[in-house]
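#struct-queue
[09:14] JT: dropping the first one here, sequence first, then the C-alpha cells:
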Amino acid sequence: MKSIRYFLAAIVCWGTVSTHAQSEFDEGQLGAWYMYFVQKQFEDSNWGIQGDYQFRFWDFGSDLEQVLLRTGVTYRPTNANVLFTAGYANITSGAFGESDATSMEHRIYQEALIPQKLGNRVLLTHRFRSEQRWVEGQDFRTRYRYNIFVNVPFNDTKLDKGVVYAALYNEIFINGETGTNGRLPGQYFDRNRSYIGVGYGILSNLRVQLGWMRQTTAGWAKNQAQVSLHHNF
C-alpha cells in the first residue's frame, strides 16, 4: 500500500510540475531570431576575428527572449583544414510574457570548425564547441556542443554571388555538470536544435538565409523562424 501511495504522490507532483512548465510560455507560439554573423581573416596572416550578434524573441519582435553578443579571435594553422576560435559572449535573457525581468550570463568559449565536401555540391562543416558559463543566480557550469552544417548550392558548386542554396544543421548540447539544488541542470542533455532553410548570395562575401528551427530541451520544445546575414571580409 505504501508503494501505491508513493506512486500516486509522484503522479500528483509530476502533474503539478508539468502544468507549471507548460504555463511558463506558449510552446505553440512561433518565435523569431534575427542574426548577423561576421568573419574576417587578416591579410597574410593565420589570425582573424569572428562574431555573431543575435536578437531572439519569443514572438516576432516584442517579447525578448535573448540578446546574444559573441566575438572571438580565430587561428587557421598553415596547411591545415581547420579553424580554431577562442572568445567571449555576453547574453541577456528575458522572461516570457509581460514580465520585463532579465538575467545576465557571461561566457567563454573555444571551438574548432572543420569543413568537408561531399561530391561537387554538398558542403559540410563540423563545429565542436566548449563553453564555460557564469549565469546570474546559478552555479558555474560548462557545456559541450556539436553542430553539423550542410549547405547545398542549387545553381553552382560553391556559395557565391547569385547562388541559391539549401541550408540545414543539427546541433546537440551536453551539460558538463548536473545537480539537484536548482542551481545546476538536472541532466546531461541540455537541448537539440534542428534547422532547415534557404539562402541566397547577395555578394560573393555576403549571404542571407531564411529558415525554421526546432529547439527541444529537457522540459519544452519550440519553433523559431530565423533570418540571418553571413558576412566574410
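[09:21] JT: and here's the second one, same format:
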Amino acid sequence: MSFFREPRRRQQPFLLLQSSIAQSGTGIIRQLLEDASGHAALFCLLHSSLLSVQGPHVKTHDLLDNVPGYNDNYEDPRKRIQSAVENAPAGPLDFIIDSIDTLSSDIGSISSTYEFLSELMSLIRARSSPSRLILHAPSPSPLLPLLSQPRFSPSLTHVIAHPPALLIHLSTEYLTLPPPLSPEAKFWGIFLPVSERVHESERLIFGPDGEGTGDTEELVIEVIVRGDAEGSRRRGVDRTLQGWSLTRGPCPLAEITALKSLWSRNIAEPVVVDPTQNVSFNLNLTESQQNSRAQVPLPYAHEGKPMDKAASAAIFYDPDSADDIDDDDPDEDLDI
C-alpha cells in the first residue's frame, strides 16, 4: 500500500521527503496538504508555490521574507514553529517544514538545527492522536544522514523523488529494467549507486540531450520504510519504487507515461542458428547411414559383457605390440 493511502493509525510519525535539482517533490507536499484528513500546518521557507494550497484544515505560515540580515523584523523561526506545534488543535496533525536546509541557514548551525528538530519530533510523538512530522530536504544536504538515523526516529518513511529519465537511462546503458521486469537484487545493485550520484540525474536532465527540467506532472519515488507506527523494534528496511502523478496521485510505474515503453517492449525469441547451414558439404546423415553407424562394434575389451553392479571397479587394458610387458622387476639392478 502506498504511504499516501495508509490508515492514519498505521502512518509513520516521521516522513522525510527528499528532492533534488533534477526532480522536485513539492507536488507530493501539495497532495499531502490537500488530502489531509486532520489538521495540517505548513511552514514555508523556500517554495512560495506551496502557499497557494487551500483547505479547511490547512494553515500555512509564510517565512519567505524572514531572512536574518535582510529583514529588520527578523524573528527566530524556532520560536514560531515550536509555538505552532504546542498550540495546534487536538487531533491528528501533519506538521510540514519546507525546507530544512533553509531553516538551518537561518539558524546558522547544523547541530543547533538537528537539536531543534529532535525536540520537535518529541513534541509530535507526545500528541495523543497519530501525528506526523514531515520534513522536506534538498539533495545533497548535510542534515539527511543525521535525520535518517534511528537515533532521531526509530520508525521512518523516507521518500526520494527521482526523474523518470533515470530509469530509462538504466534500461539503455545498463540493460536493467525496474522490478518485476528485472530481479530486485540486480536492479537495486545498479540503481542505488547511480541514483546516489546526484550529478548523474542532473546530467540526464540538464545535459546536452536532457529535458531541461524535471517532470512536474509525473515522477518516480523511492520509498524506504523502517519500523512501524506502533513502535515495533523491527529492524528490517523495506525499499520499493512507485510512480506518482499530479492528477492521479500514487500509481504503478507501468502507468507513468515516460516509462510505458519499458513495459511495451517485445522481447524477441532467441534465434537458433543451424551450424550445418551455408556450408559446402553435407554434415547430415541419411537413415541408412545412421543404421550402419549404429552397427559398428566398439573397440572395447568388455563390449557386450554385462557388468556386475556389486563388483568393484576395474581397468581394462589391451597392450599394444610395442609395449614391453613382463614380470621382471624394473629396479632389480638397484642395490636397495
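[09:30] RK: nice, looked through the second one.
[09:31] RK: The first strand starts at residue 14 and ends at 18.
[09:31] JT: good to know. The chain has ten helices and nine strands.
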